[in-house]
Amino acid sequence: MSDKMIERAAKATPPSVVRRIKGLSDRAIAWIFVAPTIFLLLAVNIFPLIWTINLSFTNFRANRPNREVEYIGLRNYERILSDSDIWLSMQATAHFLFWTIFFQVLIGFTLAWLINKKFKGNDLWTTIIVLPMMLSPAVVGNFWTFLYQPQIGLFNYAVSFFTGIEPSSFEMIGSVNLAPWSIVIVDTWMWTPFVMLICLAGLRSIPDYIYEAAEIDRATKLRQFFTLTLPMVLPFLMLAILFRGIENFKMFDLVVQLTGGGPGSITEVTSINLKREAFEKWRTGYASAYAIILFVTVFGLASIYVKALNKVKER
Amino acid sequence: MNSFSITEPSRRQKRVAGTLVIFYAIITIMPLIWILLTGFKSPVDSISYPPKILFEPTLEGYVNLFTTRTRVSPETLAALPPPEGLAETIVRSRDMVIAGPSRYGERFLNSVIIGFGSTFLSIILGTLAAYAFSRFKVPLKDDLLFFILSTRMMPPIAVAIPIFLMFRQLGLSDTHLGMILLYTAVNISLAVWLLKGFIDEIPLEYEEAALIDGYTRFQAFYKVVLPQAATGIASTAIFCLIFAWNEYAFAVLLTSGNAQTAPPFIPTIIGVGGQDWPAVAAGASIFLLPVMIFTIVLRKHLLRGITFGAVRK
């Protein structure tokens, strides 16, 4: 009873009056509340970014802090863009990105579609499928090297069980041909659930009456799938692809633990390459320029993609 | 929905869908079960061919995980007093004695301190910022929100170079405080976005009523908004905790001795002639199991949180 009175009184009071009632002004409170977050992000994200930009024009080496630092203009950038190793690691990244997203979308969407049939116990099985993405990629990736061992590894054993190939006849991590696929397999295993969950949210957002209407219009199930289900899930699917794309472009922990970039440098994705330059060869200036190029690439591609996504959403 | 609805899948469809999903789930869980099993295998069983599903369980992996051992000659071994406890018996059976504790305990504790510390801080700062963004007219609000989100696009290695230099200068390298601040900064973008969504859903009228009752803004926030947002705050906290718990790139680059967490440590557990897989699996099990149990128990909130965060944006 009294609650209702208060609510009514609250509704009747204009906000400006409420604001003047007591304590600090809203503007002051807003700033007090937002300031620590902004300050932390400035200190730990933006300031380092500016520092990186500054370093990228120098020949600074972090392992020799006392050496005089020279500004060498754009020479780091020129060197990176003409370095064939970096193009190779870009290719390794592109292979990794393309195939992980391809498999994750294919399997993730199929699973979401099946789960949406609402069979008994679907939420428990969904949770079990989700487990891998909750775990530490470095720890799990390290253990996968055990599963991938020829002869004794569970993965090789399972492959030989189903296909009859000798389990010791192939090495997932050691061979130049298979190593790029070994990281694709583990990443797909880990992150398919993410795509699945977002697709599931998309599928569940489609109201039943649309299908009922299609049913009355005698649209076939196949037609319903392509003209209703797919277009309505597409924005969700594209969002999932955006997140996976950004994450896999930055991918470090899983690959470093699985293959370490090897054999040779066949799986040396850009972040591993960057780590070598920055923390093994200690070419800090050069690595900073490299980092900026990567950041601009992700940011640029993501912005273009978001524009496309918004167009799809508007339809 | 009634069973006559034309959009409800038929019983046969459900059965086929269920079978396929369960089949995938069983394949996908195998590596995790394998980790748990390997932790209880003896070194010989762990590398046998074909891979053993049935074996005699032993705690050797766990003993090796928590101790360092030295090999001694049979004479010295015979001269020792009889072994005290299970751990010593296992180690003695391999012609070795326990030399001391391993560093796994410390590393695990570091993970706990840094994980909970950064989660606590992200939630406090994130809730305040989210409340302000949700309720007040903050100048350049959209730009600030986008700025907060965009900080997540940077590759960790790219940020690690200047952070490494900055931490060295400030004396924060390899300290708990440094790692807590760093993880908080990484987590806060997600926290603000998720929490803003939750606070947006709390009706404004409650606070206004409280203000008319004579509460200050702070009291209204503290006594009215916070209790209502509790579920949202809890699920956001779990996401922050899982991120900090699993993080590897910053940990491996910025910590070495004092503040190293478990993820960079576990892959370095080695035995005689390469990795001691039962010990690695034991370490991984202890580290991964809490997250697995968390996920299964709290599945309703967690699964909603993942898509909630994504679909909102």
Structural account:
The complex is a heterodimer of chains A (315) and B (313). Chain A folds into two domains: 54 residues, no CATH class; 233 residues, MetI-like fold (Orthogonal Bundle), CATH 1.10.3720. Chain A is built from 14 helices and no strands. In chain A, helix 3 packs across helix 14, helix 11 packs antiparallel against helix 14 and helix 13 runs antiparallel to helix 14. With 315 residues, chain A is mainly α. Chain B is mostly helical and 313 residues long. Chain B has a domain of 161 residues: MetI-like fold (Orthogonal Bundle), CATH 1.10.3720. Chain B contains 16 helices and four strands. Chain B has a two-stranded antiparallel ribbon. A two-stranded antiparallel sheet of chain B has the order 3-4. The longest helix of chain B is centred in the middle third of the chain and has 32 residues. Chain B is globular. Chain B starts with 10 loop residues before the first helix and ends with a helix. Chains A and B meet through helix 1, helix 2, helix 3, helix 5 and helix 6 of A and helix 1, helix 6, helix 7, helix 8 and helix 9 of B.
Keywords:
heterodimer; A: 315 residues; MetI-like fold; globular; B: 313 residues; two-stranded antiparallel sheet; 16 helices
Secondary-structure map:
The complex is a heterodimer of chains A (315) and B (313).
Chain A: H1 2-12, H2 15-21, H3 26-55, H4 75-81, H5 84-115, H6 122-134, H7 137-147, H8 154-163, H9 179-204, H10 208-216, H11 221-249, H12 253-258, H13 270-279, H14 284-314
Helix pairs in contact in A: 3-14, 4-14, 5-9, 5-11, 6-9, 9-11, 11-14, 13-14
Chain B: H1 11-38, H2 43-46, H3 60-66, E1 67-71, H4 74-79, H5 85-93, E2 96-101, H6 104-135, H7 141-150, H8 156-170, H9 176-200, H10 204-212, H11 217-228, H12 230-246, H13 249-254, H14 262-265, E3 270-271, E4 274-275, H15 277-297, H16 299-312
Antiparallel strand pairs in B: 1-2, 3-4
